[in-house]
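Weekly structure sync - notes
Attendees: PM, LS, DV (DV joined late)
Agenda: review two folding runs queued last week.

Item 1: First target. Sequence and structure tokens pasted below for the record.
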Amino acid sequence: MNNDFRSNGFKVALLAAPLLAVLGMAQPASALDIDSAKDSAELVMKMRCSLDPEQDVIAWWKGTLFQQDPDPGKAPVALMGFEGYNICRSEKLEDGTWRMLSRELTFYRDLKTGKILETWDNPISGERNTVVDVANDPVNHVQNPPGRPQMPLPWVKTPGWLMLTWNIPLAYPNPLMPEQFPRQSSGPVYAGSEHFMFFVKREDMENPAIKSAPLLMSWTRTGPWLPWMELGQRPGGLLYIAQSAKLGSLKELPQDIQDLVHSKYPEYATAPATWVQPNVTSWTRYKQLQQQSGGKD
């Protein structure tokens, strides 16, 4: 082999190496189409949780709980504050179904001191109630169940921002039937509603390098008295108003909540590892706690 051939071959190899490296690299993810029905489930997961199944995402909230009086002439009355979070991760099944696996904690706070409540002097009944934290595990969700046609998300678009509203009316058999739980049950049917508003930057949603888009939210809920308030079927109910945002880690939560996670709820430091059903609500958890303690009313 002559020297010219060796020299030229070496040059060809040098030129080819970067091209081969580029060809061998994984191709970047394509941008999601915010107006596409096909991409809607993935868009929701990117907005609400993450497209990375290894990433835990924390959605924090803080708000006020109001008493709604049945008398239309009376204004709602603030009863207490509340603060908590949901920790989630997502997974995509082989058939393309997206699932969100999560659990959530919420603590009630005294309006004047801000301290987390363990007992509450109930101004409606005049009694002192033992407060039950919200500790729901799991709170899972299937975004695009098989057989259900997918629709484009009903975004409200402003320059630079996307907004999305979910209104969820609720009515189903009450887990706490009044015959068994006369002081804790609001009646044979749980009736209420939840209203979510999501605010996300369009450039984040369309950037394929971002797996979990920064998010601001608002949450409103109407519902019956909480079981631990022991108001039975007294007329009236509750109104929840809260703001919410994704956080970077548990260390961004208030210190008193971090302390309770470490001491009382260590499993809530991570999202669930496996999918289980059914979901847990404050009502089903209260029933379980009562049955474990041997009490019914």
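Item 2: Second target, run right after the first with the same settings.
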Amino acid sequence: MSSMPSAPSAECTVVVPVYRNAGNIAPLLARLGELHARVPGGIELVFVVDGSPDDSHARLAAALPSQAFAAQLLLLSRNFGSFAAIREGLSVVRTPFSAVMAADLQEPIELIEQFFAQLRADRADVVVGHRAGRHDPLIDRLASGLFWWSYRKLVQKELPPGGIDVFGCNDAFRRHLLRFSESHTSLVGQILWLGFRRLALPYVRQPREIGQSACTFRGKLKYLSDSVFAFSDLPIRLFTLAGGLGLLASVLLALIVLAAKLSGAVPVPGYAATVLTILFFAGINLLGLGIIGSYVWRAFENTKARPLAVVMATVAEPVATRM
């Protein structure tokens, strides 16, 4: 890890996780230099190289001393994933405002500038960028649209259309976000769960000019499953619903089979008893799994050690002096 002296006037920090982005380093630094010149007081940078197998770290280490902005360069011991890299970057932020952006330059630099403008004007505690469109191949657009549609339906309905890839926040929000110590979870889910004053800004995702995305279908599926299990009890509720419906269906079918048996429509000995037993206990099993799962979910929620409530602001009125 290496660091550069910080600029005392800077109030804003950009955290950039880096993985397989060696080819993007030069244009990335150039765009960040433009951002540094446009943001009042300039910016600081925190680059987190997430165990990248290419020479991203070496290129950054060589280029950063000559940049106009102050920077910190962190190298993780292996690839822990972008979520972990972002958390490590946010943990060393030294300014009142911070933002996270990807190193592939698919999010416009102007969006980060808008984040800081909104945060400095105190219009929000967290500003997120959601995709209003994207210049990607059709198959990528369809896959992304399906992913974020599933996320909204299964995890958090308040997710902006198009999903969230980048965000900016003030120091209070950043500190609360770092209180989460969960693994196998969702950064987007944590941002939405915290609440605070949130503002969503639309942007058009730019085409990737250099390299290929390291995000695979398997990775997206894992991210979605982690998000569901970390922020939703939907699977348990579906089990409970299926059990209740199954139990109701077994009762209705039992009446039908019993009526058929009494009318002589079922001549096979033992058929009615067998069918009634299977239907009844199948419904009971599903319902029982749902109930047990509800208790397990509550125990699982407690192991996360999330705060029961988050105080966003405190106003203490002065005590009137008694005469």
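Discussion on item 2: The first helix runs from residue 25 to 38.
Action: LS to circulate a short write-up before next sync.
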